[in-house]
Amino acid sequence: MSSGKSLIFKRKKTHLEESMCSGGLGLDSFSDDLLKFRANVSAAVEEYETNAEDDDAEEAFLPDSTMVQNGTREENFFAKKHTAEDFERSCRVAVSTVVHTRDSAKAQLETYLQQVFSLTPEKYGALATEITKEENPELVLMCTIVSGEGLLAKDANGKSDPYCKMTILSRKHQGSQQVRQKNIADWLKTGLVRDALQTTARPETLTPVWNEHFELSIKDPKDDLLVIEIWDSDEDQVGVTKIKGLRGFGNFIADLRKGVDDFMGRAFYLLSTIPSKGERKSLDLYSHSAKTKWGSVMIDLRIRGLREGLSSAEALAEHLRLTRAVVDSESKVKGHYVRRWNAQLRPNAHLLLDLHAECCGLNKLQQVGVLLNVLLDYHKSYAVQISTFCDLIAHIKSSRHVLPERVLEGKSDRDHPLWVSSLFADVHELGSYIFDVMKDHLLVFDLKTPQGVRRIESHLMALREMFSFQTFTKKLNQKYKSLGKALETSIMSAVTKAFTFLNGKAEPLRNDPEDRLRAFKGLIQHWLHQTQRILKDIVPLFKEVGVDYITWYFRALDPLLCSEATWLERYRAADEESHTVTFELYLSMRDIANLTEHVKDETVRAELKIRNYHLWFSPMVANWISRAQSLCRQYIDKAIQIDKVIQVTDEATFSSSAVDTKGFLLQVGNFWKHLQWPRAAESYSYTAAIVQVRI
After folding, report:
1. Which end of the chain is less enclosed by CB atoms within 10 A, N or C?
2. CA angle 582, 496, 584 (to 5 degrees)
3. Dihedrals φ, ψ of 40, to 5°?
4. Cα dist. 312→370, 419, 426 in Å?
5. What is the DSSP-derived secondary structure letter of residue 384?
6. Above 80 in pLDDT, residue 204?
7. Nearest residue to 561 via CA among 603, 590, 604, 599
8. Predicted TM-score of the model (pTM)
């Protein structure tokens, strides 16, 4: 007679119960439909996620193309929004970008374009030759004045107020007397240079930090020079040459010097030496005679080609088409679009898009915004991993300094540039989609797998990134109030929807009380396992965003379980096997109730009706005891029938009936431990009743 198992646990599960408790995303199938759902869980989950929508959502994601299934036809992603003529235009733009680039990876880009646009080497060569003859893009020097070091002191306090001037000068003029003896301001007056730019002055320092960005037009990158001059600003200051003791002459000299800036050195740099990927360079500053070193200046340099006559709107539209063409190519494997694509573009794809953005004068934020728009559209058809959007939102946050000031100040949308409004609309659409998915996350994600947990984490991190950016938060809060409030609502919605979905699959079984009992037991066991997984993996994720998941989880689950359990009070078991099922149901319900201890709010915890679960089973206790007594009687009868002396240790021998009687007592104790009836007095009386076995 073995010990360690409950007296009423020795029972083989029926086929119906096995099918209801076997796993899957949660509770397994109550019907053939749900069995099919679980059998193809991966595709079903992805389809559910892609199509997730809510009645209140302003922008629901709906499938609008044929999916890749069993060799069915796919709709071309590029062709969904653009024509064949647009594809040819994007091809020409891409070839033009590569033809005019100075990047060392030019040969690799040429090969890449032939793959993206299905060009033969001959066709690509002919198109490149045609473009070279027809186009002559303007070149622009992108220059960032970073800092200065070891500059001259020009003021009486031993400091200076340095600022930087810069211009582009043809190398053929470098040795002329006008260049050697004069400065940039003089060159402008005589037309030697076309234009000049300057930084702001940094007060009282010999190690200024500017970090100011400028763009200068280039005529001939092979022969042009960048000229940088450092000056001391003497605006509204009296000159240091004032002569003390000679008041009249001193004031005269002061008046002459007032507002006259002091030269602090200059540097020349040949543009043809700038690498294709740009460089950071420290340039030494010299006097006019170029014999004396007067400190240095640190600069960042890069040359890009700029498309002339292209408006901002046209540039964005062109970049959108090119990005879509690249994504169309990158997202295919063996000619088919990838479902749940990670959107990891190859290096050549990134380089091509970066070069084109530079040619069109688009900043990094505009470029990321275009990619977000394209990937959102791809997601509606084939799904993109949410971690990709999380990364894009992080890029947008890091580039927010390029947003117009009125945008950062949160002024009306009517004041925003069109591209900013489009970016905000896409972020809002992404946020709405993720919230809609989170309202179904208990059905969408498989919490039994690390992949399912990671997908929930990705959705949460994307939301956190959005809500941590104040400019986006204001717009999102108009709909969702706050991230915490929205997620609390999502938790309760997800529990309700999952419970309704799973419980609905058991509806055909409700007519027969015994089938209904077994179905309800499967449902309770599902929620027990689900709650255990949630406490282990999901609660910590939500804690990171400041949300107490388990409290809102039980606030939603408690009324649903209690409402469904009310029929137990009217249930009467038909046979001994049903007594065993009700006891197993009781144990699962008890374990769920014990998990409510994780609800930290004592008021909320006290209000949970599931903590009084034992009241539903009070009428059944007598049947459990009767069942246990019957089993005990069988064990004792068997022990008497086969009574014989056996050795259980090296020192002593006992009768088998004594050993079996000891096992019987252990079984009684084990039953009492399993029961854990909340009311102690009743618990002891129930156990005592078991041992009152009539032989």
Report:
1. C
2. 15
3. -115, 50
4. 13, 9, 19
5. B
6. yes
7. 590
8. 0.67
Query: Tokens 């419980």 correspond to what residue?
Result: 503
185-205 burial code (b ≥16 CB/10 A, e <16): eebeeeebbeebebbebbeee
Confidence of residue 471 (pLDDT cuts 50, 70, 90): low
Residues 6+ apart with CB under 8 A from 433: 52, 57, 59, 61, 379
At position 446, the amino acid (one-letter code) is D
Instruction: Provide φ and ψ at 5, rounded to 5°.
Output: -120, 150
Length of the chain: 695
User: Residue by residue, what is the 3-state secondary structure of 555-621?
Assistant: HHHHHHHHHHHHHHHHCCCCCHHHHHHHHHHHHHHHHHHHHHHHCCCHHHHHHCHHHHCHHHHHHHH
DSSP letter at 611?
G
Q: Residues 409, 414, 419, 423: what is their CA dihedral angle, to the nearest 10 degrees?
A: 70
Sign of the torsion formed by the C-alpha atoms of 480, 485, 487 and 492 = negative
For 657, counting Cβ atoms within 10 Å of its Cβ (0-12 exposed, 13-18 middle, 19+ buried), the class is middle
DSSP 8-state symbol, 236: T
Q: Which residues pair with 301 in a beta bridge?
A: 143, 279
282: which strand partners? 298
Name 258's Cβ contacts closer than 8 Å, sequence gap at least 6: 234, 237, 238, 239
DSSP code at position 105: T
* Mean pLDDT, residues 558-585 taken together: 81
Q: Which residues contact 530 (CB under 8 A, 6 or more apart)?
A: 26, 442, 447
In this structure, what token pair is assigned to residue 317?
């539209």
CB neighbours (10 Å) of residue 284? Answer: 12
Q: Are 101 and 93 in contact (CB under 8 A)?
A: no
